Amino acid sequence: MGIAERYRQVADEVAATARACGRAPEEVRLVAVSKTVGPDEVAAAVAAGARDFGENRPDQLMAKAPAFPEARWHFIGNIQSRRIPDIVANASLIHSLHEERHAQKIDRAAAALGKVQDVLVEVNVSGEASKSGVAPADALALVRAAGALSHVRVRGLMTMAPQGDPAAAEATFKGLADLAREVRAQLPADAAADFTELSMGMSEDWRCAVACGATIVRIGRAIFSESFEE
């Protein structure tokens, strides 16, 4: 099975899982995480219908985004302050904001380009030391601070679940969904209307994430790796 077939299979499974959870398929966006592959593999996914791709390194984002202008490019990696202008120039959505100083620099970079940059606030729901993100208790403050900037629009929250532990993953996803509801309830009406995204779930655990309310799932190996086994 090639990349095109795997992409279509995953896309069909995401839609079917959404329906099984009582949700409309269009409520869940599939981001094909292309960080391990080159332009030929991206082209194969585009030909199969993929329109959202995720990269975790600015250099790869800069190389691929201009080559596929029909796609939406998501930055899902750790933000390095000096690379923020490169990220903002190429990303439709930044998933990994967790520092106010980075929000301020994103605002300046977006202003220079005449755009409003959509971002997600990354939250470390599981509390694992190896994971980035603000503590849940600090999420509202960062959402408010970033949302006050004129060239930043906070679209929601993102998290990563512990690997290899389905119960912990479910608790993490439910925790993010609950936190998002709490944050949204405390935002002004216009900001709350934009605050609709929950980016959570990857190749191993996206089904659970969809059941818990994910609006974006980030899937790479199940699409681009021949050796991926669930």
CATH fold call: TIM Barrel
* CATH fourth-tier homologous superfamily: Alanine racemase
Q: Given the helix and strand composition, which structural class is it?
A: alpha/beta
Report the radius of gyration as a whole number of Å: 17 Å
Using DSSP, what is the number of strands? 8
CATH class: Alpha Beta
Please give a structural write-up.
The protein has 230 residues and is α/β, with parallel strands linked by helices. The chain has a single domain (3-224), classed as Alanine racemase (TIM Barrel, Alpha-Beta Barrel). Helix content is 43%, strand content 17%. The protein contains 10 helices and 8 strands. It has helices spanning 3-20, 39-47, 58-64, 84-90, 100-113, 139-147, 166-185, 189-194, 206-211, 221-224; strands at residues 29-33, 52-55, 72-75, 93-97, 117-122, 152-158, 197-199, 216-219. The protein has an 8-stranded parallel beta sheet. Helix 3 (58-64) packs parallel to helix 4 and helix 4 packs across helix 5 (100-113). The longest helix is centred in the C-terminal third of the chain and has 20 residues, at 166-185. The protein is globular. The model has no long low-confidence stretch (mean pLDDT 95).
